[in-house]
C-alpha cells in the first residue's frame, strides 16, 4: 500500500525469456519504479502544481520535474541563493515526495529542482519508458542542463543531493564536473 493505493507484488518472478536478458532483469530489480497510475499523480496534485516542468533528456525522453522556488528572499536579489538538484531514492518517485521537496526548500532557503528518472512516474505512464541506470544518468544531466543553460544558474551555486539510489547519478555528475566548490550530499 503506497499512501492508500494498492501496489501488487508477486512472490515468484516470471522466468526471463531469452530476449529479455540479464540487463533487463537487473534493471527491474535495481530500479523498481512504484506501480502507480496517472490517476494517482492527479489525486496527489502533481499535475496541478504551477512549478511542474518537463525536461528533455539527450535521447528526447520527456521527464517531469518540480522547480520549487524558495519562499525566502536571497538577500537584495536572488543571485546569492543556492539551488539543490534532488535525486530521489529507490521505489520513490516525484509524486510521492512532494511534501519533502516543499519542506527542503522552505527549511534551507534554497530553490530545489526535483527531477524524475526516465521510467518513473509520468515518464512511465505517459511515455512508456523503462527505468535503467543509463536513464537515471540522462535524467540528472537534463536537470543540470536546465539549471545551467536554461535558467543561467552558475554551476558553483548548485548543490547536488542524492538519497539512496539517487546517490548514484549524484556522485556520477559530481565526478564529471570540474566546478570548484560543487556541493554534494549523499544520503
From TrEMBL:
<protein>
    <recommendedName>
        <fullName>Serine aminopeptidase S33 domain-containing protein</fullName>
    </recommendedName>
</protein>
<dbReference type="InterPro" id="IPR029058">
    <property type="entry name" value="AB_hydrolase_fold"/>
</dbReference>
Amino acid at each position: 500500500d503506497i499512501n492508500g493505493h494498492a501496489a501488487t507484488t508477486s512472490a515468484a518472478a516470471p522466468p526471463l525469456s531469452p530476449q529479455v536478458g540479464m540487463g533487463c532483469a537487473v534493471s527491474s530489480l535495481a530500479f523498481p519504479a512504484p506501480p502507480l497510475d496517472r490517476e494517482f499523480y492527479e489525486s496527489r496534485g502533481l499535475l496541478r502544481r504551477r512549478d511542474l516542468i518537463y525536461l528533455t533528456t539527450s535521447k528526447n525522453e520527456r521527464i517531469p520535474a518540480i522547480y520549487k522556488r524558495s519562499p525566502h528572499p536571497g538577500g537584495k536579489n536572488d543571485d546569492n541563493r543556492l539551488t539543490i538538484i534532488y535525486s530521489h531514492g529507490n521505489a520513490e518517485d516525484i509524486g510521492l515526495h512532494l511534501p519533502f521537496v516543499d519542506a527542503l526548500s522552505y527549511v534551507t532557503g534554497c530553490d530545489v529542482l526535483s527531477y524524475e528518472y526516465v521510467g518513473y512516474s509520468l515518464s512511465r505512464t505517459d511515455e512508456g519508458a523503462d527505468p535503467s541506470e543509463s536513464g537515471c544518468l540522462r535524467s540528472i544531466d537534463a536537470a543540470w542542463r536546465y539549471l545551467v543553460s536554461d535558467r543561467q544558474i552558475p554551476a558553483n551555486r548548485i548543490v547536488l543531493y542524492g538519497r539512496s539510489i539517487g546517490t548514484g547519478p549524484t556522485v556520477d555528475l559530481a565526478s564529471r564536473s570540474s566546478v570548484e566548490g560543487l556541493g554534494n550530499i549523499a544520503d
